[in-house]
């Protein structure tokens, strides 16, 4: 789908998504979000790891500014014109946009963002949609939506709060400031910072490590961790018991 600025590949248990609009720092469009959602829906069941990266020096500079208002040469509707539509239609459209990101949190896959250069707005939210982030020293994150009079609406607010806490998340969003790679590592936004020439190898090593355990164990563990913040301690213990019971049954069935 290079015409949309995306490349998708599936190689056994590993799928790759490459943002491929380097001439505009991989700026995103709603058509790209729709294609992302379709790719997530169509993933073969054997896929266990999804790697998201950007072509060129930037991960993603966010929404293509030509789509905010007025005429554009992309053949897509400016986002501000959505405000003239009925409420139900606007909410449905935004839900479709969000689905391009939300599938990356599904328990049956582990998603990795390989981030270099700019990760701005929708680019920041795409990185946040992934479970893990491997970044280079020049990586820079910024949530620019509030500075444009908008709100982050592609699913990035929840993982941001989970990673850095409410107060820091509010400060990052409300000021739209840059979070450099070193601070991202300190805050927990980045799992590791590696030299640019080691990014690909580091992501591969991480992917290989994730493929080691049995898939059912990773699936159940990710589901437990995703729900942990919303459960009371006793409820989490119950969820652990139920998950382990399912794993024991699956292992027993596999042994015949």
TrEMBL record:
GO terms for molecular function: isomerase activity. Transmembrane segments: none annotated. Keywords: Isomerase. PROSITE patterns: ENOYL_COA_HYDRATASE. InterPro entries: ClpP/crotonase-like_dom_sf (IPR029045), Ech1-like (IPR045002), Enoyl-CoA_hyd/isom_CS (IPR018376), Enoyl-CoA_hydra/iso (IPR001753). Belongs to the enoyl-CoA hydratase/isomerase family. This is Enoyl-CoA hydratase/isomerase family protein.
């Amino acid at each position: 789908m290079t015409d949309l600025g995306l490349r998708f590949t599936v190689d056994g248990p590993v799928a790759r998504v490459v943002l491929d609009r380097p001439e505009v720092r991989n700026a995103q469009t709603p058509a790209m979000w729709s294609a992302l959602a379709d790719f997530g829906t169509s993933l073969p069941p054997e896929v266990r790891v999804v790697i998201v990266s950007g072509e060129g020096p930037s991960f993603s500079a966010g929404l293509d500014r030509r789509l905010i208002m007025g005429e554009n040469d992309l053949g897509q509707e400016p986002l501000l014109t959505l405000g003239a539509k009925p409420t139900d239609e606007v909410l449905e459209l935004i839900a479709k946009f969000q689905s391009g990101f939300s599938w990356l949190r599904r328990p049956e896959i582990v998603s990795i963002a390989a981030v270099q250069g700019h990760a701005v707005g929708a680019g920041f939210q795409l990185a946040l949609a992934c479970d893990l982030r491997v970044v280079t020293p020049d990586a820079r994150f910024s949530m620019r939506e509030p500075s444009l009079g908008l709100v982050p609406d592609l699913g990035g607010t929840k993982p941001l709060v989970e990673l850095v806490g409410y107060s820091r998340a509010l400060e990052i969003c409300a000021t739209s400031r840059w979070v450099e790679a070193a601070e991202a590592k300190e805050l927990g936004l980045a799992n590791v910072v590696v030299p640019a020439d080691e990014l690909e190898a580091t992501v591969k090593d991480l992917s290989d490590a994730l493929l080691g355990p049995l898939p059912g164990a990773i699936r159940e563990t990710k589901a437990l961790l995703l729900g942990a913040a919303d459960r009371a301690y006793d409820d989490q213990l119950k969820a652990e018991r139920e998950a382990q019971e399912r794993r024991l049954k699956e292992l027993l069935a596999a042994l015949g």
